[in-house]
Task: structure prediction
Amino acid sequence: MADVKLFSGTSSRYLAEKIADFYGDELGMLELQRFSDGEMQPVINESVRGSYVFFIQSTFSPPSNLLELLLMIDAAKRASAGYITAVIPYFGYARQDRKDKPRVPISARLLANLLEAAGTNRVMTMDFHADQIQGFFDIPVDHLLSDAIYTEHLSKQDLEHVIFASPDVGGVKRARQYSVHFNKQLVICDKHRVRANEVAGINVIGNVDGADVILVDDLVDTAGTLCKAADALIAKGARTVKAICTHAVLSGAAYENISQSALHELIVTDTIPLRKKSDKIKVLSSAKLFARAIRNTHEHKSIAALFLGK
Result:
């Protein structure tokens, strides 16, 4: 069987090191050189000929993270790597998955095209903003779910009075998976937006009186939706409100919004590094899950076996 080579981009080095540690290997030797005008040139300083190569790099802001990933893939392809997998813990631009108004791009599809054109043979990611993005690719996509991480964590908590909630109608499927798994009730927060990143109001559908509510979402950006949902749930009689969100984008005034909100705790994964610490934010690592997925991919074993901690 061909050798496995793990490499990290600059944005995800903190996570790639943990993944390599769980995998039981060291990260490969890769140097990112820069010209004086800012152009990047990744240089792989070891042979990858015929190897299974995994590049670990999330594509959160700045956009240069995506370009760096594409350049690393191209370098490996031209060095005769046997099989190239792009491990993208957070797949940026996934919120732009359709034309919801005239004259806008379908950015998620464009990124899929770029990754394939660069020479990617496989993509591994976690919690797409929309499941159908997998269909944008003509190569295999391993879509990992954070369920395995969160269910293990929640199983150790007191869930006697817990109710799961979706912060919007679009996230009902995601929240329902938790309510079914733990045999708990589900409520829905119906939000109305006036424009992107600005929520006008939220209506709570369901009874939360005296409950400990756990909001479930795939990402938290400005935290406006989460905070308004938490306030609405408390106003409806909830005892406490927590949230689990896979990707901690946390842009703009997110930290201030969370600090001043009724949210008791926000639990995220480390697919995106926190810009600063917060007493209300807890981070769970995704490294073990990705390490197991990488090993299963190399050994041609099932990825589905990793879902819900199986």
Summary: The chain has a mean pLDDT of 93. Residues 33 and 39 are 8 Å apart (CA to CA). The helical segments are 13-23, 64-78, 107-118, 147-154, 172-181, 224-235, 254-259, 287-298.
